[in-house]
């Protein structure tokens, strides 16, 4: 009986691990991809995505996907924060090249710096609808 329990436990009914059970890697593949990593600026990409990863900055980015240009006061009201707080988030997004701004009199208007940012946001939203992301 004990042997049957062990076979059941270690057999098909055992929960599958999400890691390799042995250590083996494809040296050619690893070397090729490591070489490719040396040719791209992954650090800057990570910083850009990190900037958008903040909930309020993601809201700002999405809002700017909906309208080509918004003033700081509009953005503050849309995301429900003070103008000072919205300005802080916009400065972070600007430093990462996500948004650009222009002054018109006493108003500061922001827009997405590049169409690719809109595409990244819309793809991320579409992916979230299709795939349940475990958090």
From TrEMBL:
InterPro entries assigned: ArsR-like_HTH (IPR011991), ArsR_HTH (IPR018334), HTH_ArsR_DNA-bd_dom (IPR001845), Metal_resp_trans_reg (IPR051011), WH-like_DNA-bd_sf (IPR036388), WH_DNA-bd_sf (IPR036390)
Superkingdom per UniProt: Bacteria
Residue intervals of the HTH arsR-type domain: 37-132
Keyword Transferase carried by entry: no
Biological process annotations from GO: response to cadmium ion
Molecular function GO labels: DNA binding; DNA-binding transcription factor activity
Keywords for this protein: Cadmium resistance, DNA-binding, Transcription, Transcription regulation
PROSITE patterns linked: HTH_ARSR_1 (PS00846), HTH_ARSR_2 (PS50987)
CDD domains: HTH_ARSR (cd00090)
Name of the protein in question: Cadmium efflux system accessory protein
